[in-house]
Amino acid sequence: MNQPQRFITAPAVAFDLAAIQADFPILREPVRGGRLAYLDNGATTQKPEVVLQSLDGYYRHQNANVHRAVHDLAERATTAYEGARDRIAAFFKATREEIVFTRGTTEAINLVAYSFLEPRLQPGDEILLTGMEHHSNIVPWQLVAARRGAKVIAAPVTDSGEVDLAAWRALLSPRTKMVAIVQVSNTLGTINPVAEMIAEAHARGIPVLVDGAQAIAHLAVDVTTLDADFYACSAHKAYGPTGFGVLYAKREHLEAMTPWQGGGDMIRTVSFEGSTWNDVPYKFEAGTPDISGAIGFATALEFITRLGIDAIAAHEHRLLEEGTRRLGGIEGLRIIGTAPHKGAIISFVMDCAHPQDIGTILDQDGVAVRTGHHCTMPLMQRFNVPATVRASMAVYNDSTDLEQLERSLYKVRRLFA
Ligand code: PMP
Fold first, then answer.
1. Tell me: the pLDDT tens digits for 96-122?
2. Candidates 41, 44, 102, 106: which one to mutate for ligand 1, based on the most atoms within 8 Å of Cβ?
3. pTM for this structure?
4. 73 alpha carbon to ligand 1 midpoint, in Å?
């Protein structure tokens, strides 16, 4: 076969894809003089009209610094900002005290590493990761481990791209002081059985952080049912703005932790003799926050809720199946990450061309994908590839995007094979 295949993806549930697409103005943006097929959602998603309007509306009608003034605009800004915390807490079915605002997943994990884990670490202790973690869920642990003489270890990944659970289990020991797991791998798409893993770690008294960066926009997340001690995510991968994210943490942990950054807002009293801390979650939020980020994220989460996470997941699953079939028909193309339980991410290599060259050809055809190590260098070593091409889907993608990708990959073969 050397032609794109024809697929008709009939929605299983009421799902007005055309209306959803119309809601994302950037999808109408011509690129390289043609139609954009945006398949780089693992890196960041595009933003719907409601989110754009919430950001614009905040700066037009509410902008002032929060928490510290009595004037009308400051009250409006504070109400909108703290209202966003309630809206975000509602999405996660958590309480507002458990929602710490951060710059994103990366900062949330660093906060836990420095503020929660470091004071508890002794020489010889271990932090157990998996072989498919993003650098953001590796390096912060390495930094605190080095300061304490502790060690980061990782469970192996199988050929299909799943955590080897038996090996992971065997690595849990009295030395393990923290477990950190990615919920959905940004490179492989694998959905990890985090609920089961959390229960197993807890049975041994080990706290768990879940990296939910690739999860919240794609599958139902209820952090309280999961029983995660910590859950980190970024707004920009879930239709919200960049530079904003959330750390969910169990209140008892937040109460016991000391702040990791000092500054305005996180204090109750300050004198030159010493300072006392604000209540949770504020004691972890030093300085003027990203006010519009919080409002934009709350709006984005409500956008997800309105569409329905199950309908989103079903649509993306159809795209995953269709994309896997289309790419599976291309000679010399190998998909990396074939777990049965996967999100809509397809990483692949081709025997005829380097991922960088493939990405360049795809770009000429308006197909936006990511090429490289995807901040998962240990996974590249595991699969013995220098890099992959990654197509990652979101709610607004459709068969036309996948056909555009497939067509362009045939061109790669014609040019390089
Ligand atoms: N973890 C995973 C699984 C990710 O995909 C990413 C972003 N690529 C991160 C963590 C880091 O997110 P951010 O850069 O928004 O902090």
1. 999 999 999 999 999 999 999 999 999
2. 106
3. 0.96
4. 34
pLDDT for 311 beyond 90:
yes
Q: Which atom of ligand 1 is nearest to the CA of 234?
A: 15
What number of CA atoms fall less than 13 Å from residue 1's CA on the CB side? 14
Active site residue 375: yes
| CATH code linked to domain 17-43+308-416 | 3.90.1150.10
Q: Ligand 1 pocket check: which of 102, 129, 134 to mutate, most ligand atoms within 8 Å of Cβ?
A: 134
Q: Left (φ > 0), alpha (ψ -120 to 50) or beta: where does 372 sit?
A: left
| Catalytic member of 31, 153, 314, 375 | 375
Rounded to 5°, the CA angle 124-129-132 comes to 150
Residues of the chain with CATH 3.90.1150.10: 17-43+308-416
Q: 57-305 is classed in which CATH architecture?
A: 3-Layer(aba) Sandwich (3.40)
CA pair distance 267, 264, nearest whole angstrom? 7
Q: What is the pLDDT of residues 131-171, one digit of tens each?
A: 999 999 999 999 999 999 999 999 999 999 999 999 999 99
